[in-house]
Amino acid sequence: MEYGYYPGCSLTGSAKKLDQGVRQICNKLGHSLTEIPEWNCCGALEYGNRNELLSISGENLKKAEGLHKEIVVPCPACYKNLKDADSDKSFNILNPLELLNNENLSKIKQINNLKGQVFFPYYGCLLMRPEGSAIRNKNIMEDAISVFGGDIDGEKMKDRCCGGNQLFLNKWVTEKLSNLILTKSKGTIVVFCPFCHMAMKTFAEGRKVIYLTDLLLYVMGEKKSL
Amino acid sequence: MQTTDHIMELAGHRREDFSVCMGCKVCASVCTVNDIDIDMNPQEFLFKVFMGEEIKADNPLVRYCTSCYRCTSACPWQIRIPEVVRAVKESLGMEARFEKAFKKSLNIWGRVYEPFVVMMSAPDLLKGGYMKYLPKWMEYAGFHFPHKVKRLSTSNTLKGSSSSKEGRS
User: Fold this and answer.
1) What's the pLDDT score for residue B162?
2) I want to staple A187 with a disulfide (CB 3.0 to 4.6 A). Which of A117, A118, A124, B153 is the partner?
3) Does B107 touch chain A (CB under 8 A)?
4) Mean pLDDT confidence for A112-136
5) Total domains present in chain A
6) Residue A104, domain member (yes or no)
């Protein structure tokens, strides 16, 4: 299947690893991703004027018009903003997590097993809320980890807020919120959001923080990715 | 300017989107700001905005709302309170260095160019005790040149951003 692709700003820099992971996995699953030409920033959570925010996000949809109907958007903030901007549902805006279903997971040829390893699938906020822009299967990371033999922990904390967007404003807020999540979960922290990755990485002591894409690549045979 | 109409316009809400609030305070029971040991009742905040009361810059929700949308998710009417909070911040002209740098980057390149945003926020980062995290953050660093996005000729988007506004942080 062919998809339009909106990487978003973080994925060209601090979250390059997520970008590479998404591209590799889509490739292995037989999906092709084509970047929206000249895509611009979605505006993230920085605009108090909703119309301004929607027009910034919506500019990307105009650039995709006539090229793509289905657009893959990995970053949760971009995903939410593009979905909000697509008010008449002319596009199908998808998070890569929505490309993973039981059928796709069963296509993955498992080389490495996750048996005996504990994982904390951590979604954070914008993949889960608000309902209108949330992903459909809110257990997809658990499904993926379990199917390949891993154990799950920290279920109650999976949609709590890490305070990532306060990291450069009020660091203590992020520290307190992240620690709350960290103390009530065990094992390798599996995320899909660049902000959650940074917050968890900053405040987790002695625990690995990975993207789900790293875990899938490990399962597919890349030992180094875990 | 901080009138109810102005805030609602900024937040993209209509008056009836607010007035449906039944005061059940379920938002207060889930608000993430409570997790940092500040008693927060977003319903009271919403009510103040609705009644045209002035919200000050030191209001905890204005300062610490993380846009987690737990309130919205719990609300029987799905009221998007974080967007009202952001609208209030906008009406107060509140912009921290990081936020200013973010918008400036958008105006220059059309994207967030992280090295620029980090440089512009450096005074806050240096004095804020962030240096000790540098070793952990090395994996996020990596140099790349900025790409200047071509804009659509028919659109004014990204031109009229509010970054030039004098802000408080």
Assistant:
1) 43
2) A118
3) no
4) 97
5) 2
6) no
**Can you give the CATH number for the domain in which A9 is found?**
1.20.1050.140
**A113 in the same domain as A95:** no
Residue A38: closest CA among chain B residues belongs to which residue?
Answer: B149
What backbone phi and psi angles, to 5 degrees, belong to A148?
-100, 15
Cross-strand bridge partners of residue B94: B168
**Which residue has better confidence, A167 or B157?**
A167
Model confidence pLDDT, tens digit, residues B26-54: 999 999 999 999 999 999 999 999 999 99
The b/e string for B121-133 (b: 16+ C-beta within 10 A; e otherwise) is: beebbeeeebeeb
Residue finishing a domain among A80, A99, A118: A99
Closest chain A residue to B120, measured at CA: A168
Same domain assignment for residues A113 and A221: yes
Chosen domain end from A66, A99, A132: A99
Give the model's confidence band at B18: pLDDT under 50 very low, under 70 low, under 90 confident, else very high.
confident
Angstrom distances, CA of residue B115 to CA of A10, B141, B147: 11, 9, 13
Query: CATH code at A165?
Result: 3.40.50.11810
Same domain, A119 and A218: yes
Tell me if A171 is assigned to some domain: yes
User: Which domain does A213 fall in, by range?
Assistant: 109-225
Q: Note the residue count of chain A.
A: 226
pLDDT(B109) > 70: yes
> Which residue among B106, B136, B155 places its CB closest to the CB of A62?
B155
Residues 6+ apart with CB under 8 A from B148: B108, B109, B110
Cα–Cα dist B65/B39, whole Å: 12
Interface of B with A in 43-82 (CB under 8 A): 63-64, 66-70, 72-73, 78, 80, 82
Kindly state whether residues A198 and A114 are assigned to the same domain: yes
Supply the pTM of this predicted model: 0.94
Cβ pairs bridging A and B (under 8 Å)? 157
